[in-house]
Structures are given as structure tokens and as C-alpha cells.
Amino acid sequence: MIRRRLCLALVAVLAFVVAACGGGGSSSSGPTEIAVWHGYQDTEGDAFKSLIDQYNKAHPDVKVTELYSSNDLVLQKVLTAVRGGSAPDVAYMFGSWSPNIAKIPQLVDMAGVVSQPDWKWDDFYPAERQAATVGDKIVGVPALVDNLAIVYNKKLFADAGVAPPSPNWTWDDFRAAAAKLTDPAKGQYGWLIPADGSEDTVWHYVPMLWEAGGDILSPDNQHAVFNSEAGIKALTTLQQMAVTDKSLYLDTTNENGPKLMNSGKVAMLVTGPWDLSSLSDIDYGVQVMPTFAGSSGAHQTISGPDNWVVFNNGDQKKKAALDFVKWLTAPDQVKAFSLETGDLPTRTSVGTDQELLAKMNEKLPGSATFVENLDNVKKVRPTVEQYPAISEALGQAIVSVMLGKEQPAAALNSAAQAADTALAGK
Amino acid sequence: MRRLGHPESLAGWALVSPAAVLIGIFGLLPVVMSLTLSFQHSDLLTPETPWVGLDNYRKLAEDPVFVEAIKHTIIYTALFVPGTMLVGLFVAAAMNRSVRFISVYRTTAYITMAVSTISQGIIFLWLTDRDYGLVNAALNAVGVSSQPFLASPSQALYVIVAMTIWGWTGFSVIVYLAALQGVPAELHEAAAIDGATAATRFRTITVPLLGPANLFLVVWLTINALQLFDEVYATTRGGPLRATTVIVYYLWDRAFVQFDAGYAAAMAYALFVVILAITAVQFRIARKHVHTS
């Protein structure tokens, strides 16, 4: 008797706990609610919220709710939510995760959706479309695009009597300028590179590799080819600047770039448009990346397009989520968001709008150069699920060369071996 | 004598059951689930998690980075635990007296515990910066050349040791201070009358009576040292060149950067066994040598 009562008590407690964890279910009446997870804060956050308000007002049958979630951690959170059966309807996800995201069963494959003419899919920049494509799947719709260019401190160049970067610069010119702009007595460096060995390090090296005529993987994505002549040439340039000239500040903690640039301790950064707003204390210019003399690679850069990813939480929500994403990424909204935030337009029709470019440049000098530089995005990183392992191996190789621990060829060869092992294994 | 069926014990069970159920769900269940995970291949993305037997553990034994991570963790623990205890004992002994403003000093000593590890990491990043840090400015002032500290594969781990000793000293000060105040004054008086110097009294009376505090600190600090993560994440992200990759950081990297959750779970279990073994050894040694009364 008593035992049974005890069991009942335990069951009651358990039921309470389970109910508490279950969260509220949605009622079938009233507007369809869809949850959007994003990483926008400050200006971007305000602009994004006003877009959502605008959408909600025009669509009384749908209620879009937004939830801020740090971009760096959103994948872990989404994975947890998907496993728990409470995935967001729409989430902002880094493009580099695409191959992994493609494996989530609840993901809505956009391939059949964006092919409809009213999505104007071809209006998105080619690199964005490529980065969203994994095999025959399209994992999301471009949410943000950026690229790398030289941002330089005009005053430091003038003080050192060095001509500012020009579109005709080769990496030799870049190296010579960086050396002249380095002054150990003042703690001043010509260039700074993130050197924590993460993807942040790797994606500064990759456009140099492409410009030198190389690539990361073979065309069939079966093995690593970054240990080519081109790869060695690109890494040797970094080695010469870091080890021989000591004109390259190695930011091993990956925290210091914009701060040191803004305080006039670093003359050049290779960075994206997101850093411009942190450079309020200096007069800066923006220029496309240098080329390698005699290489067919010419001007290139790298882009890290991020996506709006839709998860399937039932037909009704899915339909509402797709409609919202289509509206959010349509030219009018892209234009409004770019104008408000300075983020680069994700669509070519908006990116070639001269009036918009002039306005953006006025708000944030240099923006227009970054928009134009989108045309120099000719390749994307391979969308294979082993990319994190490849990036890790390559990152360690680059850092070990820049720290003077290894020679470029040897470091790249052992990284290529590790990458091949990752590609061969499943 | 009481059995489960006794009404009073039933009431007891009813009272603890909410906590017990919560601990069961959020504490014990994950422990069991991660054990099963360690025998599976899981990328956290796909629902299929095929059984792979002992593969993850076998991979662990052959992974050079894991071996390195163990080495770093051992070096770190071997320096951090005694370091924190010695500095803590020194500060506590200095504060175990009645002088003016003693409560201000005691609060100051403990305040490092209130600083979040992330802010602490950022502060140390700037203090130890190769070109712009205060530490190097001080070194330059006395004629020593600038050191790369956290930017150097050969120095970074030791900088993290110093940083965490600074952060944890407040904790060991509190424990030691409490223990020191529990040392009976009459023992010191008696020894002083017999002609013992302050140093002798500290060595022969105070130190033996600190046994329980020592045991607690050794066990507590060792467990924390073996689980080092935040400070590494906030400063070096395991670098440069993996020089500060410790076990838990590597585990996090495998699970959430490389999406190999089964492998990471195996690593967690290896660490669990190590912590269990070390703690057991510590208690065994303590039973012989620590004076408890």
C-alpha cells in the first residue's frame, strides 16, 4: 500500500518535471507563429527588428518572432533544439557549416523552392549560390555576404612616405610597403594577421593561394592540392613578412586586429566591411588585395556568405517560413537593410545600384569598394563535410610557418596528408 | 533500523524526490547517455548513431594530439595545484593577525574569485601583450627584452598557470584563513613559553593542523585543474600551435568544431577515470598522513 503511494508520488513528480520541460504547444487558431534565430545586434538588430515589424503588419495571418543568438554558438543551439524537437523555423547560419547542415533531416532543401522565378535566385552573387549548394541540395538563402580587402591607415602611409595601395600592387609591393611601415621603436607594424590557426587564419591565406594559381582541393574534392607550387609561393610570402621582415604582427589571440588598427599601431589589415565601423579614430582607405606578379590568378578575394536556413516544423509553419525568407531576401528588403547597416548587398541588382553605393559610401567610407570587390570572388571553399578537419590542418601549418617553426613546403605537405586522411575516412 | 516502508522515511523520500528526480534527469542521465555515446559514431547532425564498439577508445590511444593534451594537462595541474596552495597559505598567514583594515585586505584577497574567467582572460591578454603589454613595459624598464608570452608556444601554458593561480588564490586564502583561525592559541602560547621561535611554531604546530584544509584544496584544485577550459578558451583557444590544448578544450573542439561527438564522449570518460583514480590515490595518502580530529 505504502509502496504504491510512494510510486504514485514519484510518478506525479516526474510528470510535473516532464510537463515543465515540454514547453508550450502552439494552438491551431490565431496567426501562424514562426521563430527566427539570428545574431544581429545594435544597428543591425534594430534594422532587422523593424523589417520584421513591417512584415508582421503586412501579414496578419503570420506572426514572426525573433530571438537573438550569438552567431558563433547558433549551430550548437540549433543542433540541440533539433534533437529536442523544437527547432527554430528559420535560423541564420554560417556558410562554412553548410555541408554539415545539409545532413540535418529537418532541413528544408531549397533546391526545389528557389528555382521558382519569383525568388530571382540568379540575382544572388555566384559565390553565395555556390556556398549554399551542397551536392544537389541548396541549404539556405543568402543572408549576408562579405569579402576581404586591404584597409589602410592613410596617415601612417603619408608619415612613412609610402604611396598608398593601388589596384596594381603585387604582393612584392605589399611586402615592401609593410616593411617600410614597420617601426619596432614605436611598436608599429605594417600588417596584422589573425594567427590562432582557426578558419580565420585560413581564410586570409586562401585568397593568396587562389591568386597564385592554386586551389584547396582537387576538382573532384577527393584530395588536397594546396601543397602545390602556388601554395608554397603564397605561404612563403607570409613567412618572409612574419619571420624575415618582422613586418607582420601575429595576432595569436585573434582579439587585437581592429583595436590596434584604430590606435594607429598597425598600418594595414586585410579584413572585411564589418571592421570599418570600429575604425572611427583613423582616416582609412580601402583597396583590393594585391596580385602575384605573372600569375594567371589575378585579383581575387574570398567571401564567407551566410545563409537563412529553414527547418521543417510542419507544413503550415514551413510555408510561412519560406514566404518570410523570400520577402526578407527580396531586392527591396536587401536594399533597405544595406542602407541602414552598411552590410554588403547580397543581390547583384542591388549591388550595382550606383545611388545606393554612393549613399553607403557616405555613411561608411570604403563600403563601395567592398561591394565592387564582390566581383573578385571567383572561387569558394569546398563544400565538403570534412572541411573543418582540412581547415584545422591547414591553419596549424600556416601558423607554424609564420612562427618560424617549419618551412612552407614541409608544413603544407604534412597538412595535405592530414587533409587526405580526413577525406578518405568517413 | 528504519526500512523504506516506515511512514517517516516515506515523508523523507517525498521531500527529496523533486531534487532527486532533477539530479537524475540533468545529472545522472547525461552521464549514462554519454557513456553509450562513447561507443557510437555521432556527428550530432544525423539521427543515425551506429555502434562502433571500442573504436573511439582505440582512436584515442593513437591520437598524438590527445597525448599532447594529456601532457599539457599534467604539466598544468602539477604547477597550478601546489602554486595556488603555497601562494594562498602565504597570503593567509600574512592576514591571520589583527591589524587595522584587515577586513579590507581579506576582501581584496578574495576579490579575484569574483572576476569572471572571461574578463580575467582578456585582462591578461592585454597585460602580457608582446608589444603593448604592461608586463613587458616593466621588464623593459629593468633591462629585460620583451617576451611573447601567450603568443609563444613555449611560454603560453606557463602564463595560463600564472593567470589561474592569480584567479584561484582568493579561494585557497579563505580556506587556509579559516583553518589558521582554528589553530588553538594556547598551543602557541605553551610552545612560546618553552622557547620555540615563531618559525618553529609555524612548522610544528600550524602546518600539521592544516592537514584537512590541505586535503580539501588538493582534491578540489586538482579536479578543477584537470577540467581547465574557460581560461584557455578566453585567451589562446588551445594555441599557439596547440601548446595550450588541454583535455577538456580538445574534447570541446572535437565535439563542437569537428562534429565527432562519440569520440569526444570517449575522451570525457577517459578523463573521468583519471580523475577518479587520482582522487582515490589522494584520499588514500591523506588517510595515512592527515591529522584529523
Overall description:
The complex is a heterodimer of chains A (426) and B (293). With 426 residues, chain A is of the alpha/beta class. Chain A folds into two domains: 31-139 and 306-376, Periplasmic binding protein-like II (D-Maltodextrin-Binding Protein, domain 2, 3-Layer(aba) Sandwich), CATH 3.40.190.10; 149-303 and 383-424, 3-Layer(aba) Sandwich (D-Maltodextrin-Binding Protein, domain 2). Chain A has helices spanning 2-22, 42-58, 74-83, 98-101, 111-114, 126-131, 154-160, 171-180, 199-211, 229-244, 257-262, 315-328, 331-341, 348-351, 354-363, 367-373, 387-402, 408-424, and strands at residues 32-38, 62-68, 90-93, 133-134, 137-138, 141-144, 149-153, 189-194, 248-251, 266-271, 284-287, 306-310. In chain A, the strands form three sheets. Chain A has a five-stranded mixed beta sheet with strand order 2-1-3-12-6, sandwiched between helices. In chain A, a hairpin with a 2-residue loop joins strand 4 and strand 5 (137-138). The radius of gyration of chain A is 24 Å and the shape is globular. Chain B is mainly alpha-helical. Chain B has a single domain (57-289), classed as MetI-like (MetI-like fold). Chain B is 71% helix and 0% strand. Chain B is built from 13 helices and no strands. Chain B has helices at 7-37, 55-62, 64-95, 102-110, 117-127, 134-141, 156-181, 185-193, 198-209, 211-226, 230-235, 247-256, 261-289. The longest helix of chain B is centred in the N-terminal third of the chain and has 32 residues, at 64-95.
CATH homologous superfamily of the largest domain in chain A, by name?
Periplasmic binding protein-like II
Structural class of chain B: mainly alpha
How far from one another are the termini of chain B? 28 Å
- Give average pLDDT of chain B, whole number: 87
Series of secondary-structure elements of chain B, N-terminal to C-terminal:
HHHHHHHHHHHHH
Query: Which architecture of the largest domain in chain A would the CATH scheme give at its second level?
Result: 3-Layer(aba) Sandwich
Count of the domains of chain B? 1
CATH superfamily grouping of chain B: MetI-like
Low-confidence stretches of chain B: none
Please count the beta strands of chain B (DSSP E, at least 2 residues each): 0
> Percentage of helical residues of chain A?
40-55%
State Rg of chain B. Answer: 24 Å
